[in-house]
């Protein structure tokens, strides 16, 4: 029996355990290989747990089978081995019969053969199940929407799932062997390399987000969870990574940040005061920087005042209206605006006018008003201008009301009365309230009204002043009156008639006086006479009618031989002229026609008119035949007419002067509206109007227009370091320097908001705009304004964005503004203190980011 035993003793338990151990090692090797192939390490998901459960089941089936077989053979094998060992040592007392030994060995052999067969079958089944599991897990991995990646330590790709291949636009064979660092953007490359370098067995995992290149040149964002695999020596042998596409999330976050930044920049850059009022706390919880600029209070001071804010700074006369407006906010509907004008006291103890507009910002869950969003505009200059305008209107009204002639104003479109003075009320017999808003049809007979309206329309159509010597009007209390009227069209800046001004003088009484004088002239012929100049130069009246008594106060007989009494009663101022006219008529034999004054002993002075025809006599003398009449009444009438005309001309001149003053005031008011109060250059409103005008003009001419937008670098740091008064002075100096640099009459330098400025350059291409930008940079540099808080330079610098377009109907002016603003943003992004010209490539970069 000893011949059948090995020369070296092998323990019995190794005969049973060794196959079992080999089986376990084989199963574990298969499981590990499958796990590595399917990238299950480092992936905390349900696939790993399922894999472990299946592995345990696969392991238990052959293990239990082996134990059962061992139980069948262990006993006879033990007996056989024990007996063999005893026999070999000569210590056995019992012998084993040959049949028994053979039977035991045969039983052992059969058991071992059966065990081997079952083990082989079990291993084959396990291998088949493992192969199916491997295929199952490969399908699971390939069906994942997340990116799965395995690579060597130098990031050479050894495996990638379908989702990653599709994102890269490459097939798996094309991906294998590439380095995934080549797909990462340059900005993120160093960060990823640093994290790979920091991988250790103690810290084998890292998480990072990076921008990567996708199929078709598209840039995307991926969040990666990467785990390093190390060998027994602690050396990195593989990197396993799972990535999730977060491009949509990043774009949303970027848009949100840009929106927030845009809203914040608008809130801080807007020239109006912006605030949020909490109606529950009864206090302002937010106010922008304009509060400090306009009123001198910091946002913190506004918050500190709390509920006593309005009591502290509002004018006592306006406070009740403000408190009532706050109460009315409770009744506001969403989207409805509450507007109020009031006065506040600024930090310098000066009163300023504000125009506030408030609307609902937020409500509580129950729908109660919580917060209102408001804007307040400084209208102090406008209010002062309105007060000055009111003074001018009052002054003009006092002039118009005291003019003795009727003055009226009609609307150019409707021809309805808009104004009527007291003289007009007295003339037509209607009060001002009865006339305003009505037309001629409602005040006068139809035929007369039609004639008035026809005249008015002719004046408005011609656009010229029309003098109407006689105009008949039917009054309601004095019957028919005759007027001398001037009608004047009042036009706007474009030449379009807006109003019709009328000035009417009542000449009814004057015309009646003229008619009476003409009637008297027919019945009182005056003096019919013969007047003779002798050859010696003396004068006499060969004949004079009785009318000479009334004209000169002498009888015909007193002057028959000597005309001296007549010359004695002439007004001293008239005598030289009368004598000169007589000699001229005698010398030239031209008709004598002269008006002069006669003085009576009782102090009366009359005007007379003399007319005569000369004839030369044979002795060399000259005789005149003619008449003389009293024209005192006519002269008085003429005097009255002259005075009336002078009054009308004076009134017209006064009105014209008032119109000139009003035009000057309107021009000044327009300038105040269009000028920035701090820097004294054009403001945002003026810029918006001007760019639209130039855009329309240049779209017809098809010439370019350029826009430079610039702002002061790190201006907030400047304000924080030197204070807002110095900041205001800095803005003024920068604005004036920029205006001198852009010196053409058509160029416009405007304050766009805060520390941002805009320079509009009509008929200027990109090259010309760059030259202007360089001049502005040089001008700001020459100011040498110290800026110790700037990280860029020790003095004030600016960043500029330049845009150029050919205006057309297809484009709008806002396109140019957006392009210049985008270029300005790029100049800031590149480090400030420079200019950037907008290009389409720049716009492309903006859309990708």
3D architecture notes:
This protein is α+β, with helices and mostly antiparallel strands and 849 residues long. The strands form five sheets. A five-stranded antiparallel beta sheet has the order 2-1-5-4-3. A five-stranded antiparallel beta sheet has the order 7-6-10-9-8, with helices on both faces. A hairpin with a 5-residue loop joins strand 13 (466-474) and strand 14 (480-491). The longest helix has 45 residues, at 98-142. The protein is rod-shaped, with a radius of gyration of 57 Å.
Give the end-to-end Cα distance, rounded to a whole number of Å.
88 Å
What's the oligomerization state? single chain
**Mean pLDDT across all residues, rounded?**
81
Name the helicity range. Answer: 40-55%
Largest sheet: 5 strands, antiparallel
Shape: rod-shaped
Features:
alpha+beta; 5-stranded antiparallel sheet; 23% strand; disordered N terminus; 849 residues
Describe, in short, the structure shown:
With 849 residues, the protein is α+β, with helices and mostly antiparallel strands.
């Amino acid at each position: 029996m000893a011949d059948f035993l090995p020369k070296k003793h092998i323990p019995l338990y190794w005969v049973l355990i060794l196959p079992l151990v080999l089986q376990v090692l084989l199963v574990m090797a298969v499981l590990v290989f499958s796990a590595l192939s399917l990238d299950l390490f480092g992936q905390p998901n349900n696939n790993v747990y399922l894999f472990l459960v299946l592995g345990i089941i696969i392991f238990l089936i052959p293990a239990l089978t082996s134990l059962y077989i061992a139980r069948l053979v262990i006993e006879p094998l033990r007996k056989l081995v024990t007996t063999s060992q005893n026999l070999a040592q000569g210590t056995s007392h019992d012998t084993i019969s040959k049949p028994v030994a053979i039977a035991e060995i045969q039983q052992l052999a059969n058991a071992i053969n059966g065990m081997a067969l079952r083990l082989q079958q079990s291993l084959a089944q396990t291998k088949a199940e493992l192969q199916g599991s491997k295929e199952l897990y490969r399908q699971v991995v390939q069906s994942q929407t997340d990116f799965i990646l395995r690579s060597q330590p130098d990031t050479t790709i050894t495996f990638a799932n379908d989702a990653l291949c599709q994102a890269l636009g490459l097939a798996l064979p094309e991906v294998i062997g590439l380095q995934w660092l080549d797909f990462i953007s340059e900005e993120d490359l160093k960060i990823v390399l640093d994290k790979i370098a920091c991988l250790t067995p103690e810290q084998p995992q890292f998480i990072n987000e990076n921008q990567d290149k996708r199929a078709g040149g598209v840039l995307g964002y991926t969040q990666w969870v990467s785990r390093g695999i190390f060998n027994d020596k602690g050396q990195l042998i593989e990197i396993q990574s799972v990535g999730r596409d977060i491009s949509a999330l990043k774009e949303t976050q970027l848009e949100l940040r840009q929106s927030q930044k845009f809203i914040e920049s608008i809130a801080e850059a807007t020239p109006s005061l912006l605030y949020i009022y909490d109606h529950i706390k009864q206090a302002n919880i937010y106010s922008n920087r304009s509060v400090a600029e306009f009123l001198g209070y910091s946002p913190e001071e506004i918050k500190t005042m709390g509920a006593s804010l309005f009591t502290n700074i509002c004018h006592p006369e306006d406070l009740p209206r403000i408190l009532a407006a706050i109460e009315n906010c409770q009744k506001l509907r969403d989207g409805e605006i509450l507007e109020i004008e009031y006065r506040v006291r600024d930090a310098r103890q000066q009163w300023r006018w504000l125009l506030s507009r408030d609307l609902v910002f937020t409500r509580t869950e129950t729908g109660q008003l919580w917060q209102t969003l408001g804007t307040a505009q400084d209208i102090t200059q406008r209010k002062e201008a309105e007060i000055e305008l009111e003074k001018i209107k009052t002054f003009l009204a006092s002039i118009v009301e005291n003019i003795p002639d009727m003055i009226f104003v009609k609307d150019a479109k409707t021809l309805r009365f808009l104004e009527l003075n007291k003289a007009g009320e007295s003339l037509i017999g209607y009060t001002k309230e009865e006339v305003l808003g009505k037309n001629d049809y409602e005040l006068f007979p139809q035929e007369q009204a039609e004639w008035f309206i026809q005249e008015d329309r002719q004046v408005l159509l011609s656009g010229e002043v029309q003098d109407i010597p006689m105009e008949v009007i039917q009054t309601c209390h004095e019957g028919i009156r005759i007027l001398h009227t001037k009608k004047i069209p009042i036009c706007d800046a474009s030449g379009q008639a807006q109003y019709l001004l009328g000035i009417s003088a009542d000449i009814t009484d004057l015309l009646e006086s003229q008619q009476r004088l003409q009637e008297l002239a027919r019945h009182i012929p005056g003096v019919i006479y013969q007047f003779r100049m002798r050859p010696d130069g003396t004068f006499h009246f060969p004949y004079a009618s009785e009318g000479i008594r009334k004209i000169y106060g002498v009888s015909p007989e007193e002057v028959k031989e000597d005309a001296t009494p007549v010359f004695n009663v002439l007004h001293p101022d008239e005598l030289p002229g009368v004598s000169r006219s007589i000699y001229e008529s005698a010398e030239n034999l031209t008709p004598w026609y002269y008006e002069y004054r006669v003085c009576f002993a009782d102090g009366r002075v009359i005007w007379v008119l003399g007319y005569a025809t000369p004839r030369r006599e044979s002795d060399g003398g000259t005789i005149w035949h003619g008449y003389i009449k009293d024209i005192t009444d006519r002269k008085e009438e003429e005097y009255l007419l002259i005075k009336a005309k002078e009054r009308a001309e004076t009134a017209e001149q006064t009105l014209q002067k008032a119109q000139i003053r009003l035009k000057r005031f309107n021009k000044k008011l327009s300038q105040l509206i269009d000028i920035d109060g701090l820097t004294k250059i054009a403001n945002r409103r003026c810029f918006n109007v001007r760019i639209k005008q130039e855009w329309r003009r240049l779209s017809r001419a098809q010439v370019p227009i350029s826009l430079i937008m610039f702002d002061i670098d790190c201006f907030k740091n400047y304000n924080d370091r030197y204070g807002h008064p110095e900041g205001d002075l800095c803005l003024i100096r920068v604005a004036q320097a920029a205006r001198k640099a852009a010196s053409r009459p058509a160029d416009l330098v405007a304050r766009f908001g805060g520390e941002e400025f805009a320079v509009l350059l009509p008929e200027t291409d990109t090259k010309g705009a760059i030259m202007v930008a360089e001049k502005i940079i040089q001008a700001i540099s020459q100011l040498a304004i110290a800026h110790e808080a700037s990280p860029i330079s020790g003095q004030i610098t600016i960043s500029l964005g330049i845009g150029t377009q050919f205006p057309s109907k297809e484009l709008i002016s806002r396109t140019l503004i957006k392009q210049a603003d985008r270029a300005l943003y790029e100049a800031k992004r590149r480090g400030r203190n420079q200019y950037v010209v907008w290009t389409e490539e720049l716009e492309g970069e903006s859309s990708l980011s």
